[in-house]
Design goal:
Length: 111
């Protein structure tokens, strides 16, 4: 099946439609492997995000505090609701550090 349907390695061709590439992205064989790897990485990030959302919806939280002084317990983060409402309950420095740490770990794990 390799190379008979337009894909560099034959993947992506499914019956009954065959290979579907309306933008012609598979023609660029040099960038095809990178685009495939990036798509897999984004899919994994989405799966982790879904798990994080499910944990929040179930109301699970960890013990402890957001700061060393004990002024911001984890259990109070969701007291006003989820999503953007919860961000108001996290100190600005905590939001910045948490976001940057998450991005750093995703970048390291993806390589």
């Amino acid at each position: 099946m390799a190379n008979d349907n337009g894909s560099p390695d034959g993947l992506g061709a499914l019956a009954p439609l065959g290979f579907w590439d309306p933008l012609g992205l598979a023609d660029d064989t040099d960038g095809f492997a990178r685009r495939r790897a990036v798509e897999i990485k984004h899919g994994r990030i989405c799966m982790i995000a879904f798990l994080g959302m499910a944990v929040q919806e179930l109301g699970w939280s960890v013990g402890g505090n957001l700061d060393l002084a004990g002024n911001y317990p984890f259990s109070d983060v969701l007291k006003d609701g989820m999503g953007f409402a919860a961000l108001g309950n996290v100190p600005a420095l905590g939001n910045l550090l948490c976001s940057n740490t998450f991005i750093f770990h995703i970048s390291i794990l993806s390589h």
